[in-house]
User: Fold this.
Amino acid sequence: MQPSPEQSPHHAYPDHWEADVVLRDGGTARIRPITTDDAERLVSFYEQVSDESKYYRFFAPYPRLSAKDVHRFTHHDYVDRVGLAVTVGGEFIATVRYDRIDATGRPASAPADEAEVAFLVQDAHQGRGVASTLLEHIAAVARERGIRRFAAEVLPANTKMIKVFRDAGYTQQRSFEDGSVHLTLDLEPTAESLAVQRAREQRAEARSVQRLLAPGSVAVIGVGRTPGGVGRTVLRNLLGAGFTGRVHAVNSALSAEQGTIDGVPAHRSLGEIGEPVDLAVVAVPADRVPEAVADCGEHGVQGLVVLSAGYAEWGAEGRERQRELVRQARSYGMRIIGPNAFGIINNSEAVRLNASLAPDRPASGRIGLFTQSGAIGIALLSGLYRRGAGLSTFISAGNRADISGNDFLQYWYEDPDTDVALLYLESLGNPRKFTRLARRTAAVKPVVVVKGARHSGSTPPGHAVPISRIPDSTVSALMRQAGVIRVDTVTEMVDAGLLLADQPLPAGGRVAILGNSESLGLLTYDVCLAEGLRPRPPIDLTTSATPQDFRDALSAALADGACDAVIVTAIPWVGENGEAESGDGEVLATALHAAAAAGPAKPVAVVHVEIGGLAEALSAATSTVAPPRPPTRPLATATPPTRPLATATPPARPTAPSATPPPATDTSTPQTTPRPGRIPAYPAAERAVRALAEAVRYAQWRRQAAVPGKVPDFLDDTTDAPGAAALIDALLGADPDPRGRQLGHDEARELLACYGIAVRPTLPAPGPEEAVAAAARLGYPVALKTTAPHLRHRADLGGVRLDLDSEAALRRAYGDLTELLGKPAELRPVVQAMAPRGVDTVVRATIDPAAGAVLSFGLAGAPSELLGDTAHRLVPATDRDAAELIRSIRAAPVLFGWRGAAPVDTAALEELLLRVSRLVDDHPEVVSIALEPVVVAPQGLTVLGASVRLSPPPARNDLGPRRLSNY
Assistant:
């Protein structure tokens, strides 16, 4: 909302303060600055506030606002006096205001850095987290305007408001003066305030999803009067699934005489229903959707599933229609799945919701599935159904204009009915948030992701998302860092999901292979080696093996302390007449289940070739409806129960010491053998082994994540952050170029030195005499290098001459260089003192507008440039991240004594990575750093080249107050 011309002309209306937010109960509201046009809204709002709340606000009876009050509360300069309102349906439900004050409490202007703050929340909306959300936003506004502290006077009886301030996580002081509580809050964000903010965000967004997945009543808008059509299909599917709530059909074209459709009460509008509706499924043409949304909003519907197409996938006009749809729904406090969605399914027996176009509700199970594509969703549902897998929830979000995969990660994080989260994503609307949520969720349950549209420019037209410049390989590495299991195809996602949902996590990569085919066993062995597992020699039971032989062999393998997982391979039995006998699948499945249930908790997978009924029997051996779980904490808990990690040996045998930190203890589920579950079966060894390998890597990440890394304390003693900040301010100037600037060699050296990063000096050599003088200053031996862009770091082209130990050698090299490659003015030669011999590496840090700061490492030259052998981690990096970074490239053995060479000083390299990470994290103006080459010797390292780019810091929406994305 823009202000009228009466608004102060000195400060423009700050539209970037406007935000859609999710409240504690899952509903949405809008926060915006108050303007002079809000006088009537303010008066109406105040009339609906109770006398008690008015007394708490003004410390005296205050039945109505005077004209002077209304003027004061609606006229702000957006600097020293600021008011924000929370609106639902365009009407105020809460307000907050601050006034800048001086040390005596009188009105003031900058540089005064304290403000008095006061809130007022309509009684009907108290308890929804409105004041807590407002405090986050008004604090962010105050910090932007140079205010560092809030002061508040609160009556002792106003315990709710005191709790809002106390629980915010800011550093605060309290005192009792003149009958009121005086509170002072330091507005600088703290680790506690950020943790509080994110915990509230998680609870609110999870609740908003829960309201969609567990409605008490559903209305399908757009149900046709005759069979067929989208609306009628959804209605049929709701009834066919046995939805436990109430169902209504809505069609504005119905006649007054038509009271039912398919036995369901039929109405021409929601107003005719006469009772609350929680969820509306919208299946009308796009041009009629606004009318339907308004009808829903005016009658208290909590959420929408919009199946209608004709939005952003249709171009610019559709994108604007989509934006307006989101704005309209949020103005009423509703969230949206869609548009262009396929629908949602909740298999909980208490709900049994199938509000989708899928004709059959899949079996109940422990897998949550999110997809942005309806076609992929259909394929995944079909594939899971064929393999006997069950789902807890299914969501196909279409254009995901509002609710996205991030929201469902918030929900699944503590959903007791979901053990594994599977996501097919074609775009990441907020990569930083996704990484943060995925890391937290992966710490308690597996998250498996397939990323479609991986290549630049291939984002689906319906998905308006921030542009990311980082390659897909970097995205994959960052997902791995967050514990996400990234796979390439939906088939691999299903393969991994089946194993993770029903088998315990492996304690390591030691794999036993047994079966009745030596050839199939050897194939499995080879694939295990290729996937980085440690297979034991296959056990050949011969083709005459009986199901009892399989059971005995599996029992022995599971009991073996040197085995972490078992892969069973099976081919059809060959009878005496030479014909294959494939009818014993059910008998073999029974034998394998018996062995798995009786043995220690270790994962088992089966590779089978044309054994009739085996896969079906393995998947049907247990009920598709999960048995009762041990009691878990309610939805609002901050830490959900985690799945236990399998131990490497049976409980009676002690485990050997290991360098890997032990897994976190599960305090909510007894550490006993998991319930007997289905055993996943695969038609090819490659698929089974790949799924198992992903489980092994994930389990290792879980164990490590249980003891998180840290930033060493020594960095605090050897860094000069204030000095670096002052230097950056001076280099950028008072009016920095928004395109940024590249630092010169000496400028980069000075900035890096503030963080203990020494760059070996280089001296220009525009002629041979200058080269000789530079060498005399630096001391022999020296290197002569060109710095022309096309020759930089290209020793293979002759642009670098090393170990020049005398003036004669230097002059001779200079002459050869200019004769071979060109004039000195073109080559830009420099002289540099020789560094100790070692391995040339490269360290980089870049700021991606979507993903954030990324730290990268690789070997210099062909390994990183030609082969792409580079590792990546998100900033800030911990000591564990730094250690993993240098060990995760394929060429890492070169650093650790490959072919008898001396190992290099990896500890010094890890320290350098941490220093670069700290510099970029402390100073967002540093948008790019490249250290190349970094020569790592057996003792120490030398940074020979450095380039640094500065720019005004990009916006960080992940550190500000909670808000929904706007696309």
User: Anything to note?
Assistant: The chain has a mean pLDDT of 86.
